[in-house]
Amino acid sequence: MTNCRNRKSEAEKTPSTFSLSVLFEEKERSFLLDAKVFMVLMDDEPVISFKTNHNHLRSDEDALMYKDSIISKHDNFLELLFRKGTYTKLYSYTHLINGFAVHITSEEAIDVLQNAKGVRNMYEDIKMVKMTTHTPEFLGIPTGVWPTLGGAPNSGEGVVIGMIDTGINPQHPSFISQLSGVSPQSNRTKFRGICTTGNGFPQTACAGKIAGAHYYARAAIAAGDFNITRDYASPFDADGHGRQVHSTNPSVRIVTSSTAAGNHQIPVIVNGFNYGYASGMAPGAGIAVYKALYSFGGYMADVVAAVDQAVEDGVDILSLSIGPSTVPPGPSAFLNPLEIELLFATNSGVVVVQAAGNGGPASSSILSFSPWITSVAASITDRKYNNTIILGNGQSFSGTSLAPPTSGQVLFPIAAAADVCSRNTSYVMVENCHHTEPFIQPLVRGKLIICTYSYDFELDAASISTVAETIQNVGAAGFIITMDPHTGSEEVDGTTLTLQVPGIILNNMDATSALWEYYNSQTIRNTNGIAVSFTATARILDGRRAFYTGQGPIVASFSSRGPDVNNALLQTADVLKPNVMAPGSSIWAAWSPNSEGDQHIKGQNFALASGTSMATPHIAGIAALIKQKHPHWSPAAIISAMMTTADVTDRLGAPILAQQSYQLAPATPFDYGSGAINPARALDPGLVFNIKFKHYIQFLCAVPGVDDDSVRRAVGIGCPTKKKAWCSDLNTASVTISNLIGSRKVNRRVTNVSGEKEEYQVTLKEPMGVTVTVSPKIFQISPNASRHLKILLEAKEATNAHTFGELILEGSKNHVVRVPLAVYVTSAIGS
């Protein structure tokens, strides 16, 4: 099978309505108008329904002809409705939904479109934001998973992971095909994707590891954000993608594809130092790239087009390290176009994995909402990078920085930046060491310079690189960054950037005070206060060598927290979010050396990054491993397997903790979902909770504030005629009730996937204020058989807060199935 076909997808066609030049002209003209992009759903069925409803044996050619007819109908519909020049069609959505994205430059046109016959619904486009050497070992994959799948190079073979992100660099060693353990297109008979070429991305890029590639930017161009010289009109990654800890502007960007399915045992060499060897979770899996994000983020219209194409191409897993910038408007967050598109992707058998968001530790900061999506929280691991400075008086202090040591065992003189700079320069310009101009070359050369971290630093780690660059340019031996007393006790993140000069960040006031006390006692000044002799000395050790505490995982402070929300009013939903947790802090992953995203690491093949964006591809890769072993499992079964086998204790057996603003606290399911991913157990979960498409529709119909018409306009079908259900009735591997009044009965259905008969016994840890009864308490279940569990939750006292417990099914064959419970008691029985 090849990566090319004669028939071009709509993503590759370039008639005038799709050309970049026309879109750029349209963008310039729209600045004078109230121009907007809308995603429009039509009443007609999409390709996937056409194939299913009419004749499942229809040929691919019939499906392609029907797809072409959809596109033509969209074009004709718009041509009949509007005069030329008042709109630009950006995309036709054809596979999972029937609709289009259109850029409209007239308010009257918006009204006309809203009321046009055949239009089911309209959504205004919204902005999307971008939400390893050790982590395979930390997760136990090399010993507990890869050997069972034929070894690391074969793990994930036959599975294709669709990465919707910032693209890929095909020349990176993590992706070049000759290093892959699988032959090109090995066992990927289902995948039909093609390779879109362009700047930096030749046809040969899709020869093996990279199975297919596209890019999507029409909505970004219409919005005026796309820069063709910076963002590359091709699948090539000119940005990279990853870290986005405390803001929507990521300071470090990583290629997430390498974490999911990068080649095995690739040396991580940065600035000439080998930090170890990196492997993806599923090194044998294929990668299909759908570039829809750029340095500025992206737009939902582009992302929906990417998802539509990915599912049409035949990917098995979809990984989205992105989410909406805010909770979308409308009656429910579950009904926005991307969530519905991902629902149809799930119905097509695709496992959807999405970053939970980086809004933690605030509650209800989740930006991945729906139960058909695996929403991923981020943890820190047991790997640490610490550095040490040894003073001339024998004192030593720990700090951070991935920096080389000073030479040999020699002690170097220390000088404060203010004492080796021109006195007619502002205090701020001197103290932060961001500028070379103030330094007096003869005074600074060969010394360790004390700089001060203050609010004048940009709030990202790139400022540390600016210091390192300045120190290197002025000829100093290295730098010491101390804390400004006015910044408080918050630590500076100095572990995400690799440095070429010796340096250390003293992250606490005690070390800062001790250093200054020593320096001042050893510095001789004249009557004007000018330093004339520097006798304080120190040396800095190597900060590039990791050590391992054996602890962790710990929920990272930035990781978004539950409870999940139903709508923009932040009304709580009966859905557990996040679902599961994976490593997401200080993760080594592939970097595109051509990236313009961060000048401080341009030219490097690897970088460290943090964020739920980095946790997500871990789960996508593990889902690929499960899919390889169990190719016929549904997406719900794979999600269930990962959730019910997750760990709620750390590696030392203690309950997992979560980073709060300035402290650690016991973690809850709203911090980590079901817990920290355990890949070995996820391959053999014993029981799974399966969900069908019709059950998701029933769920949507039960959402407060959502009526039959809302569901019909979003999904294309109405609610079942049966009586009203609860959202908590959905057969998920968790139970969440955000408004328990009196009592509620919840049913769950488990299916035995272990291959042998097993007896299970139910034990409970009840949430505070709730009595839980489960029937049956003991049951036997045969292979492939299913059993219903009846769960009765009765309120004992109003808690006015969520409380947590768990239902544990312990099997006679050593399977343990853990189901988290999260309940908010509004009113107790009899109150």
At the fourth level of CATH, the homologous superfamily of the largest domain is Peptidase S8/S53 domain
Determine the mean pLDDT: 83
Overall shape: globular
What low-confidence regions span 5 or more consecutive residues with pLDDT below 50?
A: 1-17, 28-33, 178-186, 240-255
Relative strand content: 25-35%
Our count of helices gives: 21
Please give the oligomerization state of what you see: single chain
Rg, nearest Å: 28 Å
Category from helices, strands and their pairing: alpha/beta
Q: Can you count the beta strands?
A: 42
Count structural domains: 4
Q: Helix coverage percent of residues? A: 10-25%
State the major sheet: 10 strands, mixed
**Architecture of the largest domain, according to CATH?**
3-Layer(aba) Sandwich
CATH fold-level name of the largest domain: Rossmann fold
Instruction: Provide the CATH top-level class of the largest domain.
Output: Alpha Beta
Q: Between the first and last Cα atoms, what is the distance in angstroms?
A: 68 Å
What do these coordinates show?
With 831 residues, the chain is α/β, with parallel strands linked by helices. The strands form ten sheets. Strands 6, 7, 10, 13, 15, 16, 28, 29, 32 and 33 form a ten-stranded mixed beta sheet that branches. Strands 19-18-26-20-21-22-23 form a seven-stranded mixed beta sheet, sandwiched between helices. Strand 21 (448-453), helix 14 and strand 22 form a beta-alpha-beta unit. It contains 21 helices and 42 strands. It starts with 19 loop residues before the first helix and ends with a strand. Mean pLDDT is 83; it is low at 1-17, 28-33, 178-186 and 240-255. The chain folds into four domains: 20-124, 2-Layer Sandwich (Alpha-Beta Plaits), CATH 3.30.70; 127-379 and 555-685, Rossmann fold (3-Layer(aba) Sandwich), CATH 3.40.50.200; 386-545, Glucose Oxidase, domain 1 (3-Layer(bba) Sandwich); 693-827, Sandwich (Immunoglobulin-like), CATH 2.60.40.2310.
